[in-house]
Write a structure and sequence with these properties.
- The chain has 247 residues and is an alpha/beta fold.
- A six-stranded mixed beta sheet has the order 1-2-3-4-6-9, with helices on both faces.
- It is built from eleven helices and nine strands.
- The chain has one domain: Alpha-Beta Complex (2-enoyl-CoA Hydratase, Chain A, domain 1).
- Helix 5 packs across helix 6.
């Protein structure tokens, strides 16, 4: 079974986290497959939109902590960091369908999407500080830009979970849907039917005002994230998490 399932429906490429027995927690191999799928989608003209989803009852529980603890990424060439940069630089529309838990990268990745649809029961969280880490994927820039400084600070510094209703209120998602994947595919096909160059140019213009700023913040986050991974704080937090003691 592929832990990243990639299928094509017309001009829409579907990329699905497919490790439901582990709540779709993302390991190094899955990041490599995600990167390959995004590179393919970038290069192939007949792919016009990408839909990101998770199998089973969870979008993704975020990074696989076992994988992280045993194989700390040394630099920006690590597959996880490459995935973040590929999301940021992806030139075609990216749509997400979210249900269950969206933890860590499961929430920060949504900040790079062009449309997001979530099930009513979805729970979002970015528990980086709780794990002794710092935000990633440009979220320390994009999240306060979206929701304002004080709200972003409260969510990031406490690591608290928030609901689909709150995600809709703050503008993280487009709509709450009973079947978010069906809605995501519907919107994806509608976009795919539009003139492709006009679509790509419009996305580029929408991002042009802050693209370079996000890139710079992502680089700073990455450096601090790698340093934090090796800290005593993070190692203790990981051990608490793995022993079931994390809040």
């Amino acid at each position: 079974m592929n832990e990243i399932e990639v299928t094509q429906d017309g001009a829409v490429l579907s990329i699905q986290f497919n490790r439901p027995e582990k709540k779709n927690a993302i390991n190094k191999g899955m990041y490599a497959s995600l990167n390959a799928a995004l590179v393919r989608a970038t290069q192939e003209f007949d792919i016009r939109v990408v839909v990101l989803s998770g199998a089973g009852d969870c979008f993704t529980a975020g990074n696989d902590i076992f994988d992280f603890a045993n194989d700390i990424p040394a630099d920006e060439s690590a597959p996880g960091f490459q995935f973040i940069h590929n999301l940021h630089n992806f030139p075609k529309p990216l749509i997400a369908a979210v249900q269950g838990r969206a933890v860590g990268i499961g929430t920060t990745a949504l900040l790079h999407c062009d449309a997001v649809f979530a099930a009513p029961d979805t729970k979002f969280s970015m528990p980086f500080v709780t794990l002794g880490l710092v935000p990633e994927a440009g979220s320390s820039y994009l999240f306060p830009k979206l929701v304002g400084h004080v709200r972003a600070a409260e969510i990031l510094l406490t690591g608290r979970t928030f609901t689909s209703d709150e995600a809709l209120e703050i503008g993280l998602i487009n709509r709450i849907e009973g079947d978010p994947l069906a809605e995501a595919m519907k919107v994806a096909h509608a976009i795919a039917s539009q003139p492709p160059t006009a679509v790509m140019n419009t996305k580029a213009l929408l991002k042009s005002g802050h693209h370079a700023a996000v890139e710079a913040v992502m680089n700073a986050e990455g450096e601090l994230f790698r340093i934090a991974l090796q800290s005593d704080e993070a190692q203790a937090a990981f051990m608490n998490f793995l022993s079931g003691k994390a809040k």
